[in-house]
Amino acid sequence: MQTQIDKDFVRWCEDIGQFAIDRPMFDVVDEHNKLLASGSCSFATSWCWEKCYNFKLHKLFPNMEKKDIRNEENWQKITGKDIAFLLSRKRKSIKRFRGCTRGENIKDFKDIDRWEDIAIENPDTEIWIPTKAWRDPFLKREIEKRLFPFTNLAINASVDPTTTEKQWIDLIETGWSTMFVGDDERKTNPLGEPLFKCPKTGVFKLRASDSEEESAWKKKNKGHCAICKAGCFGNVTLKRRTDTLLYEH
Ligand code: SF4
């Protein structure tokens, strides 16, 4: 049976050219401190607290909390079949789908169950799952055991300047693709291998100094993640692990 899911939970995200979802980053409570929705960013680092643009957005738009509550209610009941159904009903047809653009994709073991179900029920959709859950050794092992075997899941460990070389090397040696953000000048991973330079946040990024032609060309390439073959989707499209550099500026 179809679960009752809000139509706007799976939303079109122009910036990445695919459908995506969101979850609350922090706990949402009412005026009596009653929990209305649990935050998902359990593995956020000091870098996230300082730099994440979503944290900044939250401060600017406190009303986002209402949507956060609904989003988490939807996430806690959605099934892989629901996602397949919702994607099939969308006018834009694209065989890619991204987990949270805001919030954490894998906060606990229930989230692993849900992604496993989504992977099974959407075999022809390439599903992008950035996560910091690798910071919990138990979740990390479970993800490797249960989610890595799915060839339609583009699971990426989100790493930043607080990630130690030892942690990053461990991720590489255990087969994780990684997405690094926090130093635009960084060229290699800790093993000296080149990082893939993200086109969306690099060459296609709109800048005030762009000429009219440059700006038009960049706008045309907006949503490059929909067709990007390497980078974050490398393990699905190229069948190999990748380390991606996402630009900040
Ligand atoms: S590397 Fe490709 S998929 Fe990843 S953020 Fe950049 S453009 Fe998008």
Fold and architecture overview:
There is one protein chain. This protein is an alpha/beta fold and 249 residues long. It has one domain. It is 33% helix and 18% strand. The protein has an eight-stranded mixed beta sheet. α6 links the parallel β6 and β7. α4 crosses α5. It is globular and about 45 Å long. The structure holds iron/sulfur cluster.
- Provide the number of structural domains: 1
General shape:
globular
Distance between the termini: 46 Å
Mean model confidence by pLDDT? 93
Outline the biggest β-sheet: 8 strands, mixed
Strand arrangement, major sheet: 1-2-5-6-7-8-10-9
DSSP helix fraction: 25-40%
- Which radius of gyration do the C-alpha atoms yield? 18 Å
> What is the number of helices?
9
> What amount of the residues lies in strands?
15-25%
Name the features.
249 residues; alpha/beta; two-stranded antiparallel ribbon; 10 strands; binds iron/sulfur cluster
Write the layout of secondary structure elements.
Layout: E1 11-13, E2 18-22, E3 28-29, E4 35-37, H1 46-51, H2 53-60, H3 64-77, H4 80-89, E5 96-102, H5 109-121, E6 126-131, H6 137-146, E7 153-159, H7 165-173, E8 177-181, E9 196-197, H8 212-220, H9 234-237, E10 243-246
Parallel strand pairs: 2-5, 5-6, 6-7, 7-8, 8-10, 9-10
Antiparallel strand pairs: 1-2, 3-4
Helix pairs in contact: 4-5
The protein binds iron/sulfur cluster.
